[in-house]
Structure formats: C-alpha cells, structure tokens
C-alpha cells in the first residue's frame, strides 16, 4: 500500500470530513431483539400490528356511568360492581346504575363516561341491600374515556427509518408488541494508544515517561457515542507487534481508533505499519488544535473495509479530532442521520483574539444560557493542546474563523460538546 502524505497545503476541515464520511457508509441492517436495540437507529419503518390502547378504558378512578343518568346532579345511583385495571367487566351498566372503576380498567358496556371519585359520596347500603353512591358532577358522553386506538392504530407507521431508539421509542415498540426491529448494528470499535513513553500500570514515572490518558478518554467517548469498545491497550513502538494488533483488531472490529504518531516525527512506527497494511491518507487540516490527522481503511480478505482513525497524540487535539472527524463518521456507520453536535450562535463574554494563520480555531469554552435567552461563552482557562485539565470541563467549542478573532460581546458560532 502507498501512503499519501499531504505536505504544505492544509486541507479544509469540511473537505477532510467529506473524504472520511465517504468511506464510512452505514452498516447493513440487522434484525435484533427489541431489548438489545436501545440507542440504535431504525433501518426500516415500524408499522404497528396492534392498537394502543387495546380497548376503551377510563382515564380516572371513579364511577362509570351512562351520561344521561348524570345530566342532573346531584344524583344517586346503584353501584353494581367494581372493575380494577387488568380485570374485565362482568356485566353492563343499566339505567340508574354505575360501576366503580380504576384508571386503565376497561369501560363496561352501557357506560359512556366516568365521574371522578372526588365528585362522589359513598352512601352505604340501602334497605334492599343495594350499594348507593351520590354523584355531584355532570359529565358528557366520552368524558374521561380513552378510546381504543386513540394512540396507535393497526397499520400506523409509528417510526420511520432513521429514528433513534430512545427509552420512549423502546416503550412504544413494547406497547405494540414489536419483538424485533431492523436496525443498523452497534459498532464494535478498537481503541489503542502507541508510544514507548506511555505508562499505564501506575508505576513511578522516569524522565521522559508520561501517563497514558488518551485511550482512557477515547474509550469513554466511544462508549458515549454508543459503540462497544475493545481496548487494545498501549502498543509499544514495535512494528511486528503493532501490525499483529491492528490486523487482529480489523478482523474483530468495525473500526479502529488510535492516538499518537500522526505528525512529523522522523521515525514513527504507527506511520510505518499503517502505511504498509492499510490504505492511509495523512493530512494536515486547516484547524487548530488537531491539525495532523490520518484516515484510511484496512481491507479484510472478504473485501470489508475497516476504517482507521489516526488521531493526534496531544490530548486536547485527540479530543477535538475525535469530535470533528471520528464521531460523525462512526455515527454515520451506525445509521444516524444527524452526524454533528448541536451548533448555535453564542455571545462572546470575553475577547477571542487570534492571528491569521490559515486555520479555523476551535477554542474550548464554558457557557451559560443567560436571561437574554442567548448562550454566553468564555474560553476555558488554558488553550494549549497539552492542557487537557482545562479542556476536560468545557461545555462547547467556539469556532473562530481565520482572521483577527472575535471581540467581547460579538457573536460566535459554537459546537456543543454535551447534552
Ligand atoms: N515539526 C512538527 N512537529 C509537530 C507538528 C508539526 O506540524 N510539525 N504538529 C504538532 C501537533 S499540532 C500535534 S497535535 C502533535 C501530534 O503528534 P503525534 O500525533 O505524532 O503524537 P505524538 O508525537 O506521539 O505525541 C504528541 C504528544 O502527545 C502525548 N501523547 C501521545 N499519546 C498519548 C496518550 N495516549 N496519552 C497521553 N499523552 C499522549 C505525547 O507524549 C506527546 O507529548 O505533533 C506536534 N508536532
Ligand atoms: O493538533 Mo496540534 O493540535 O495543534 O497540538
């Protein structure tokens, strides 16, 4: 395989994103049990085979009545039975009669409305042994009755392809007895970090060593994106070992995310190995941070192309690169229609000064929705690409176009990082 090295010219972000998305098509649909589908994206519309609610039922606890019997109130009626939720009525309601009924219970024949229990007074048993109640509210036909099918009818297309299976969607699927659904499968994504300087076993650091942190972050971000994560650990600077790990990950996983080794280092094991076994493009993107980025595919024997995202090693750059490059692509593979984070126009509560350098800057910010209804942002305290401590609690990234920056009180586009 040959590696394409883009030197000199920086690639516009949108161009790089389009290039990556083009190699990350949605995974073919699979039929899965509803219980395993939470968070996944429907690949086909769901048409209901059942009605919801399945029968006319009461919306309140009270007395099922014939509405004509309560046209004039107060009125006394004979209580001829009781229907709890889950029970079936065993007799109709005749003139002058009522049935005590609990929320959700089926309406008995004859009754066409329900008087709330708050509007009743239990009178006890009369001389003939009949239980009597006085009702003080007049209700019209249909009052407090939830008709069969007034939520979902047989044949309704309740969800279209592309809908995300949230807990509420899952509940509706349960309510119409959809036992399986056609979805884009959950992605299994391998994550690794590379470099002999990385220590992840808690041992004391020697000069030159640092603690591994990117993989910890990326594994969490992948899980947050709805992927199953396969942690490949820290792979040492050993070509044979890295090749073995990557090849085996490509057999088992739908995508691979690595951090480190994508910049200009004289000799880099990641570059050497990926250049050998995958079809990689090494880019310098016109953004800061996260300028260096690599993307490619490793082709399995069966022809499946497994995307590989080579994120930069600097921790903040790794985070930004994941957000801008890997997350949208992985979401596309999982069938999501909306690939990017929520964006909005915010008010800069501080100067966002910068110098022209041909790049779009992504400043990490904290923000609040203020009383004026606008989102107000200030930069986090440190903006270096090695200063993850400041970025970790950022709410959003402010997009500062090439130029002199944005002045305090000016408008600035932001990409939300959470929520
Ligand atoms: N001559 C140039 N040097 C650099 C350039 C450039 O354009 N020309 N770009 C800089 C930029 S921008 C970035 S970002 C970094 C990207 O470097 P690499 O992706 O090659 O990553 P490394 O060199 O391996 O590491 C960079 C930095 O990050 C630390 N790191 C790496 N992995 C981890 C990890 N898993 N956990 C925590 N920290 C990690 C590593 O120790 C380095 O400090 O290149 C610039 N250089
Ligand atoms: O991507 Mo580097 O992002 O500017 O530190």
Automatic annotation (TrEMBL):
Q: Which pathway does this chain act in?
A: Cofactor biosynthesis; molybdopterin biosynthesis
Q: Name one GO molecular function term.
A: metal ion binding
Reactions catalysed: adenylyl-molybdopterin + molybdate = Mo-molybdopterin + AMP + H(+)
CDD domains per the record?
A: MoeA
**Gene Ontology, cellular component aspect:** cytosol
| Domain (MoaB/Mog) ranges | 190-332
Which UniProt keywords are given for this protein, alphabetically ordered? Magnesium, Metal-binding, Molybdenum, Molybdenum cofactor biosynthesis, Transferase
| Entry's Gene Ontology BP terms | Mo-molybdopterin cofactor biosynthetic process
Which intervals of the chain form a coiled coil? none
Instruction: Specify whether Magnesium is a keyword of the entry.
Output: yes
Cofactor(s) needed by this chain = Mg(2+)
State the EC number(s).
2.10.1.1
- UniProt cross-references to SMART domains, sorted A to Z: MoCF_biosynth
**Matching Pfam families:** MoCF_biosynth, MoeA_C, MoeA_N
What protein family is recorded? Belongs to the MoeA family.
Do you know which PANTHER family this protein is assigned to?
A: GEPHYRIN, MOLYBDOPTERIN BIOSYNTHESIS PROTEIN
- Record's function text: Catalyzes the insertion of molybdate into adenylated molybdopterin with the concomitant release of AMP.
Name this protein carries in UniProt: Molybdopterin molybdenumtransferase
Q: What is the scientific name of the source organism? A: Ilumatobacter coccineus (strain NBRC 103263 / KCTC 29153 / YM16-304)
């Amino acid at each position: 395989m040959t590696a394409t090295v883009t030197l000199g010219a920086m690639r516009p972000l949108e161009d790089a994103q389009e290039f990556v998305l083009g190699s990350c098509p949605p995974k073919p649909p699979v039929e899965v049990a509803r219980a395993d589908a939470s968070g996944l994206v429907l690949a086909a519309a769901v048409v209901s085979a059942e009605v919801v609610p399945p029968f006319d039922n009461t919306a309140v606890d009270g007395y099922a009545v014939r509405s004509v019997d309560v046209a004039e109130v107060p009125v006394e009626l004979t209580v001829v039975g009781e229907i709890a939720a889950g029970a079936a009525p065993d007799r109709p309601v005749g003139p002058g009669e009522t049935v005590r009924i609990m929320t959700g219970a089926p309406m008995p024949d004859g009754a066409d409305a329900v008087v709330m229990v708050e509007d009743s007074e239990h009178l006890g048993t009369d001389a003939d042994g009949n239980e009597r109640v006085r009702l003080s509210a007049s209700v019209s036909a249909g009052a407090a009755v939830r008709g069969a099918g007034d939520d979902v009818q047989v044949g309704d297309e309740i969800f279209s392809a592309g809908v995300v299976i949230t807990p509420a969607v899952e509940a509706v699927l349960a309510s119409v007895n959809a036992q399986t659904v056609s979805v884009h499968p959950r992605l299994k994504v391998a994550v690794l970090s590379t470099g002999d300087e990385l220590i992840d076993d808690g041992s004391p650091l020697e000069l030159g060593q640092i603690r591994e942190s990117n993989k910890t972050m990326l594994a969490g971000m992948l899980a947050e994106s709805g992927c199953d994560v396969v942690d490949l650990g820290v792979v040492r600077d050993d070509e044979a070992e890295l090749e073995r790990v990557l090849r085996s990950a490509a057999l088992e996983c739908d995508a691979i995310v690595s951090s480190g080794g994508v910049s200009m280092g004289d000799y880099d094991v990641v570059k050497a190995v990926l250049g050998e076994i995958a079809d990689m493009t090494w880019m310098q993107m016109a953004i800061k941070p996260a300028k260096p980025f690599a993307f490619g595919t490793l082709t399995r024997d069966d022809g499946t192309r497994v995307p590989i995202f080579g994120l930069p090693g600097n921790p903040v750059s790794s985070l930004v690169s994941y957000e801008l490059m890997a997350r949208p692509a992985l979401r596309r593979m999982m069938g999501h229609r909306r690939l990017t984070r929520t964006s909005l126009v915010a008010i800069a509560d501080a100067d966002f000064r910068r110098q022209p350098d041909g790049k779009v800057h992504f400043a990490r910010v904290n923000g609040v929705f203020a009383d004026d209804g606008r989102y107000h942002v200030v930069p986090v305290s440190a903006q270096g690409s090695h200063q993850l401590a400041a970025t970790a609690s950022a709410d959003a990234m402010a997009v500062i176009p090439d130029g002199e920056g944005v002045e305090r009180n000016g408008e600035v586009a932001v990409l939300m990082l959470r929520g």
